[in-house]
Amino acid sequence: MKKVTTARISQLLFLALFLVLFLMTEYRGSDRIVAAVNGFFRANPLTAASTMLAAKAYLPLLLPGLVVLVAALFLGRFFCGWICPLGTILDLVTGRIRKVGAVRALTGRAKYWLLLPLLTASLLGVNLAGLLDPIALLLRALTFFFHPLFGDTVRGGWRSLYTVMGERRDVLDPGYRLLRDYLLPFRETLYPLAFLSALLFVLILFLERYERRAWCRRLCPLGTLLGLVSRLGPLRRTPAKLCADCQACREHCPTSFDQDLLQTEECILCMECALRCPSRRVRFRFTGARPQVGTVMERRVFLGGLLGGVVLARGFRFREPTAEAKLLRPPGVRDEDEFLKKCVRCGECMKVCLRSALYPAFFQAGAEGIYTPLVVPRLGYCEYNCTLCGQVCPTGAIPDLPKEEKQRQVIGKAVFDKNHCLPFAKRIDCIVCEEHCPIPGKAIRSERVEVTGFDGIKRIVQQPYVVDELCNGCGICENVCPLEGKAAIEVFRVKDRTPLKAPAGGAPPPSDPYADPYAGGGS
Question: What transmembrane ranges does the database entry give (predicted)?
Answer without folding.
Answer: 59-92, 112-132, 189-207
